[in-house]
Amino acid sequence: MNLVMVVHGPEAFDAGDVERMIGLLAPRLVLVAGVMARTAAEESGLPVTCTDERPSVVFRALVEPSCLVNRGKTPESGRIFGELVAGRLSGLVHVECSNGTVYCWDSADENLAAEIASRTGYGLVRAGSDRRSRPEGVREIRGCIPGEAVFVNGLVVGTATAETVVLESAGGTLRVVSGLEPKPHGFEKLLRAGLPDIGIAWCKSGPVRTAPPRQGGRARSGGRIAVVDHCGHTLYRDIGEDVCGVLAVGDDTTAVCGHICSHAGIPVFGVIDGDGDAIVKPGYAPGSVVVEVTHGRDDDIGREVIATRNLWAASWEEWVEETLRALEGRVRIVVDRRGE
């Protein structure tokens, strides 16, 4: 088919959906949207092109037949995600692998949707997205499972207590309207970067990936040390061939960086304070070390390391040893993969 397939999220790769769809649909191009989707795509070895853009941005730039391939954590959350993307477009063909459904949203190409349904054996559903205007400064995050983490711009801001979380931007701050047990430190970190435009902010709930990472070969022993401070979703912007290791600040940031860098073989020096939300399966490349702050918060120790340590190293191993000596008595090692 003369088709561009846009894949969202890692689960479609981890479950084998993308490989199956490539075999059935023979797309001209497969574009991958999302940070963890990129990690899963690289691990899969499939012929794809990765992009940092959101699915709706990717679709708006396409002029040829296209479809969204997604596997939601539940069929309902998958449908909600498709509707969210469709609401920003004039029409969308959405292949939802969690329940084997091809959604033809709004004024999407019905012939294309029917052809995909025929080739995949999926059911075909014609649906209309909810285009009601929402009050300015109010954001609904739907499809949540109570008890799971809720993210705004890559930072965990609390735990869902309902299927829909409602946030409001007002008075120069962000507040919870309903559905969320807030994590004050998370809101603090989010607002430190400036009050987000909640109407267009990247919001999601649940784990960022359920599959464990795959180990790759070891990266270079010396070079630049990338810094990722409470913003793990920006990692791909910071790592390149000159990077020998990553300094990660924050529990969830360290977990995400360790997971992503595992396949790339890049070791991580993580600084945490024990308030992680178990958003991704742990995994670290050989040479990685994670330290937990015994007094204070990871923010303070992290800022100190960033300010006082040279962020270029002739030897990653030596840089780690020197950093541990500088922090002696104030941290304890909780992950140690030195010498592997």
List keywords for this structure.
6-stranded mixed β-sheet; 30% helix; 3 domains; 340 residues; 7-stranded mixed β-sheet
Structure, described:
The protein is of the alpha/beta class. It folds into three domains: 4-127, 3-Layer(aba) Sandwich (Rossmann fold), CATH 3.40.50; 138-205, no CATH class; 223-336, no CATH class. The chain has eleven helices and 20 strands. The protein has helices spanning 11-14, 17-25, 35-44, 55-60, 75-86, 110-120, 184-192, 235-238, 251-264, 298-308, 316-326; strands spanning 4-8, 29-33, 49-51, 66-70, 91-96, 101-106, 123-127, 138-141, 149-152, 155-160, 165-170, 173-178, 180-182, 203-205, 223-229, 243-249, 268-272, 289-293, 312-313, 331-336. The longest helix is centred in the last third of the chain and has 14 residues, at 251-264. The model has no long low-confidence stretch (mean pLDDT 92).
Main β sheet profile: 7 strands, mixed
The separation of the N and C termini measures 47 Å
How many domains, in number, for the residues? 3
Shape: globular
Estimated radius of gyration: 21 Å
Strand content: 25-35%
Total DSSP E strands: 20
CATH architecture of the largest domain: 3-Layer(aba) Sandwich
**Helix share, percent:** 25-40%
Look at the structure and give the CATH class of the largest domain. Answer: Alpha Beta
CATH topology of the largest domain: Rossmann fold
Give the number of helices: 11
Low-pLDDT sequence parts: none
Q: What is the overall pLDDT average?
A: 92
Strand order of the largest sheet: 3-2-1-4-5-6-7
Helices and strands: which structural class?
A: alpha/beta
